[in-house]
Amino acid sequence: MSRSHATDTTTPPTNDHVSDDFSDSPVHVPGHSLRWTTANVDEGLPGIVTPLTWSLYFPPTEQTMRDCWVDLGVMPRSSRPIPEDVDRRFLSVAFGHAIANVDNMGQMAARVPGGSAAMMEEQLFGSVQAGGLPEPRGWAKVRRYPIVAVKFPIALRRATKEFRFMAAETEQWWRTTVNNLAEANLEEALATLVEARAMFERGLSVHMVLSMAAQGLMGQVENMAVAAGLPSGGELIKSDEGTAEFELVRDLWRLSRDEIDIPTFCDAHGYHGSREGLVDSVAWRENPTAVTTLVERYRNRQGFEDVDALVARRRTEHAESVRRLHAGLRPVRRRVADVLLAVASHVPAWRETGRANILRGVDVARASARVVGARLAESGRLHRPEDVFFLTIDELTERNSQDLTALVDHRRAQHRAYQSIELPHVWRGVPTPVTATPPPIDGVAPEVSISGLGVSAGIAEGVVKVITDLDDADLDDGTVMVCKATDPSWASLFPLAVAVVTDVGSAMSHAAIVCRELGLPCVANTRSGTTDLSDGMLVRVDGSTGVVEILSAR
Predict the structure, then answer these.
(1) CA 247 distance to own-chain centroid
(2) Is 404:387 a contact under the CB 8 Å cutoff?
(3) What is the pTM of this model?
(4) Which of 3, 13, 48, 313 could form a disulfide with 18 if both were Cys (CB 3.0 to 4.6 A apart)?
């Protein structure tokens, strides 16, 4: 018996806060009639976002996405401005949760040669739901193909060229800026906060184009793998250069061998930390305690595979995957496949190094916001420095001479209300909150298995450890790590696990890409792994079929 994944969009309200008036909240701007989801977006923006975090992400994320579709030729230039109608946007926020417009994204994907709404939903959101807008057909689907054929290569060349030097430039800017903020006055800190939003948007403008290209490449590799008789194409995509997260793992390993020290490590990776996509979270450079704990786990791990051995093993495994692909293709198709795989080998770096650039912008916003909060609290305009996170960037720049305490108190009350609200996987218009699935009860027989998406091949058996907070993670030998989703900082835990299982995600998600790079089995988008599975269960994870089999309850 396997747990089904039918989406309930009709669950009645179960929370008194649903009736509250959130119309003045900057983090509650739901749509009206189209389909929306938290899938994929809650990987980078987990849980409830504060007004400051959302004002960093919006409008930049929406604008760069629209710019991307226009520059690729998929949308006309007239669609570049952000529309007033929320249902015409790609991103928004509801009850404090960041959300994505499934229907609008599908319409765009369907207008790319070889693309489809269903493929986009599967790759980005982990499943295809019924009831969406009709797939464009005929002239409506192909009329922009000639424009895309001309503009897509131009936009891709521009993005790849800028990508090559952006990482080094952004890293130097991040390091210099966060180290020089401590003595800044209010005006200087506010100017840096605005600069951080601009750098964040610049990183997104490149990342967005490369992500769209990556989606198309992933689809082509998947189709090619299926044609050759392989179960999936994920194992065929491996970076030749390694990703930013791979370098994070390498440096943790070096740190555990005393080849580098904590300050050196944080000078390179200090922008990471638990819930790192949120401006109000705490980065490792601010509190390296979590790094010290991680290093001890690396140091104490028995039979730990060093990075050089890991690289050699992954090359061998990848070569075997390519050999199996060649065996299923005709000679002419093999040459085409090799060219496609050579281009697709850039996908992990595009995705993960691009995220690193964006996260450095988040961290500079974090550092400058802390200074802004401190200065406003010193002048009595805020009760405490951390109140700054309940204001938007524009409010801080335009109203910093005012008493902001009453507004912050109101926003804090809304934030508390949002924390007790959970949203369905997919819904139309304004979401109806759902009741959280309770954890398994001792003495009640669990499901025999749960299913998701197999996004990183391999089979592993191990003992479940459900991780809800990166800083509290404690993984023993033979652990299957189960979590809602992962962001780049979670890559530090992956080498300590034998397999990874996530509630949300897809073949393009962070967990999938890093697990493929490290050669770990991964099942994503189980929807309920963190509630159906509990600490101590013995499970078998099949990263090809997407099945997590429960072998024993304890």
Answers:
(1) 18
(2) yes
(3) 0.87
(4) 13
Give dist(CA 128, CA 425) in Å, integer. Answer: 11
- In order, the DSSP letters of 456-490 are E--EEEEEEEE-S-GGG----TTEEEEES---GGG
Across the range 43-65, mean pLDDT stands at 95
pLDDT digits (tens, 9 = 90+) for 174-226: 999 999 998 999 999 999 999 999 999 999 999 999 988 887 788 788 888 88
Alpha-helical runs (H) found in 379-504: 393-398, 405-418
What are the contacts of 477-482 at 24+ separation with CB within 8 A? Answer: 477/301, 477/302, 480/539, 480/541, 482/529, 482/530, 482/533
Residue 1, pLDDT score:
39
Answer whether 62's CB lies under 8 Å from 80's CB: no
How far is it, in rounded angstroms, from Cα 431 to Cα 170?
Answer: 37
Average pLDDT of the residues in 58-66: 96
Pair of tokens at residue 139? 């002239």
Name the helix (H) or strand (E) containing 152.
helix 145-179
All residues at 6 or more sequence positions from 379 whose CB lies less than 8 Å from its CB, including other chains: 186
